[in-house]
Design brief:
The complex is a heterodimer of chains A (about 375) and B (about 170). With about 375 residues, chain A is of the alpha+beta class. Chain A is about 25% helix and about 30% strand. Chain A folds into three domains: about 70 residues, no CATH class; about 140 residues, Beta Barrel (Lipocalin); about 140 residues, no CATH class. Chain A is built from eight helices and 19 strands. The radius of gyration of chain A is 23 Å and the shape is flat. Chain B has about 170 residues and is mainly α. Chain B contains eight helices and no strands. The chains are: A alpha+beta (about 375), B mainly alpha (about 170).
Chain lengths: ~375, ~170
């Protein structure tokens, strides 16, 4: 066989990691399907469709109709927050989220007059992650033009491709993430100028498009880092169907505009569900209900929560499933202390073991 | 106790499902595992219903032919949905795994230059392991035609690979 066909055979993405399925279960399912049954096909179309949809209204309406107006919504068990520590360490430009796993402080809250009692709805998203970490690592390596062999950690929780020039690491645990790093280049000579931020942003957007995960990019945050090796950092908060998330894509460029680092999460939206949400005022009551029973606090010291935002945060549920879940984040208004309090916004019947996401600084790094 | 029909089908599933899953997985990416499982199951449902039609000397080519039809339906549904919603992703109608996740940039580029027909027959041979005779059964053409088409596809692939300059 010539070198060309040896290379072609070696490029087979399933050569190293064959497709494996529980065949006995499969046989049992297939042989029990009536001759006229076609639900499998509809299920596939639904999954693909929701993964690609960009219109929150279209998706929400379609899913609500298929669900029989919300009669079969999954109950989410939040026994543990998503393991975001690994993600935070991989995404050096992302806001630290470590504090969010702490329990709510022993305190009492008052609801400001602007917080409504009206019930509302929000969309939660079940996520799917790459099925094969090896092929995903190879795919990402190709996007960033990383050469070199592929290897895995002993527990297969992280995968690595690269050589002395650049590396691509894929973290498979929890919410999967990836990190690209280029070998440090010589420091720029004094007097050199950066490429325009618009050009760097365009480069970053092109790379993001080639990642092909389907999530959208919000307006980027651009910052300059001075020092012996000055850099431009471009961070895109991620959106799903127009809703803000706590996830982001980060890119670092050196002075000549060469990409020296990048990182972000790996997921696709598998399915969306329209859930009833607790009202904004009801959310404050839920915060109070979660305060430590033995805690004492004078009412005069109780913060008054005057406004709230709705966003999506990633969680790994008790059964291991990954979801983006609607979250209320409250604060005391623009002139108050720099603190906020967050909690899962889903209405009571649909959640288990909900804890507050704790008190977190508003300031973002 | 399982009937002989169920035993026959069970053997086919044990022997063919890895190849069917790999065939579909190579050509639809990135696709969540659950969706890939659904497509494999859809293929096997056809096998189950048409068990008596499966040629005993060409089970894999026949199964991959069914998988190819399932795949085309999936791609058509995908395209219809994209058109309906105005959702445009930078992906051709025949987008396949080799377009997006080969680490070998030269291979990727050379494959991208092939026609859909050339790429299909080349990869059925190189990745799915079908011989010229198997290709004929899978593509419903004569063995001679399959051999000629495979040879031409291999030549064109090699020419493209030689032309590719990876930056």
């Amino acid at each position: 066989m010539s070198d060309a066909f040896t290379r072609l055979a070696a490029a087979d993405p399933f050569a190293r990691d064959p497709y494996v399925v529980d065949v006995e279960d499969l046989i049992s399912r297939v042989t029990s399907i009536p001759a006229h049954e076609t639900s499998l096909w509809r299920r596939f179309q639904l999954r693909v469709g929701t993964a690609l949809s960009t219109s929150a209204l279209v998706t929400a309406g379609a899913i609500a109709a298929l669900q029989g107006a919300g009669s079969s919504l999954p109950v989410l068990n939040f026994a543990a927050p998503v393991a975001r520590a690994a993600y935070a360490s991989a995404v050096t430009l992302a806001p630290s989220t470590a504090a969010k796993s702490s329990s709510v402080a022993a305190t009492h809250f008052r609801a400001g007059p602007a917080l409504s009692n009206a019930s509302t709805q929000g969309v939660a998203y079940q996520l799917s992650v790459p099925t094969n970490p090896a092929t995903e690592t190879a795919r990402l390596a190709a996007v960033f033009r990383v050469q070199g062999p592929l290897s895995a950690s002993s527990d297969k929780s992280s995968w690595h491709a690269g050589d002395t020039h650049a590396t691509l690491t894929y973290f498979a645990a929890g919410l999967p993430s990836w990190r690209y790093a280029r070998a440090t280049q010589p420091a720029m000579s004094s007097g050199a100028s950066f490429r325009s931020t618009r050009a760097l942003e365009a480069t970053a957007r092109d790379l993001a498009r080639r990642l092909d995960y389907g999530y959208q990019l919000a307006s980027p945050h651009v910052s300059f880092v001075s020092g012996s090796s000055p850099e431009v950092h471009v961070r895109f908060p991620l959106e799903v169907e127009g809703f803000a998330t706590n996830l982001s894509l980060a890119f670092r460029f050196d002075a000549p505009g060469v990409l020296v680092g990048a990182s972000g999460p790996s997921f696709l939206v598998a399915r969306s569900y329209v859930y009833p949400l607790v009202s904004l005022r009801g959310g404050v009551a839920r915060l109070n209900a979660m305060a430590s029973p033995g805690a004492t606090q004078s009412m005069s010291a109780a913060p008054t929560l005057r406004r709230a935002t709705l966003s999506l945060e990633a969680f790994q549920l008790h059964n291991g499933a990954l979801w983006l879940v609607p979250i209320y984040t409250y604060d005391e208004g623009p002139h108050a202390r720099s603190a906020s309090w967050s909690l899962v916004a889903l209405a009571g019947p649909y959640v288990r073991h909900v804890t507050s996401l704790g008190r977190t600084p508003l300031a973002q790094p | 106790m399982a009937s002989s029909r169920e035993e026959h089908f069970g053997r086919l599933v044990r022997e063919l499902s890895p190849a069917i899953g790999a065939y579909l997985g190579r050509r639809l990416y990135p696709l969540p595992r659950g969706d890939l499982d659904d497509l494999v199951e859809e293929t096997l449902i056809v096998l189950w219903r048409r068990l008596d039609d499966v040629p005993t000397d060409a089970e894999l080519p026949w199964a991959l032919g069914v998988a190819r039809n399932v795949l085309r339906n999936a791609q058509r549904a995908y395209q219809r949905r994209e058109n309906y919603e105005g959702q445009l992703r930078d992906r051709g109608a025949s987008a396949s795994a080799e377009d997006v996740y080969l680490a070998d940039e030269g291979i990727r580029a050379a494959l991208a230059r092939l026609s859909d027909d050339d790429r299909e027959i080349l990869l059925l041979h190189a990745w799915d392991g079908l011989s010229a005779e198997d290709l004929a059964r899978s593509l419903l053409i004569t063995p001679n035609a399959a051999a000629v088409r495979l040879s031409r596809a291999q030549s064109r692939f090699k020419e493209h690979l030689d032309e590719v300059i990876v930056p």
